[in-house]
Amino acid sequence: MSSLTELQDLIQDKYGLDAAQLDPHASMREKGIDSLALAEFLFEIEDHFRISLPDPDPTMDTLAQLAQLVDQVRAGATAQPAA
Asked: Global pTM?
């Protein structure tokens, strides 16, 4: 299950951006989320999903990219090691 909807809800709560107007493939910077705000948002994501994110690619700029990263980390956290 993709984390995109939850990320849209989080960004709406934190920045007051209407989730319906948040194109997952549009630049978050164009919506007023600068690199400092993005760093703060990443901490909120870690708290919300109870995960630890790797340092994001500096070119990461869309919710779709962020959702993909969160989904990868969550999949890795729930994967069971081979016996």
From this structure: 0.81
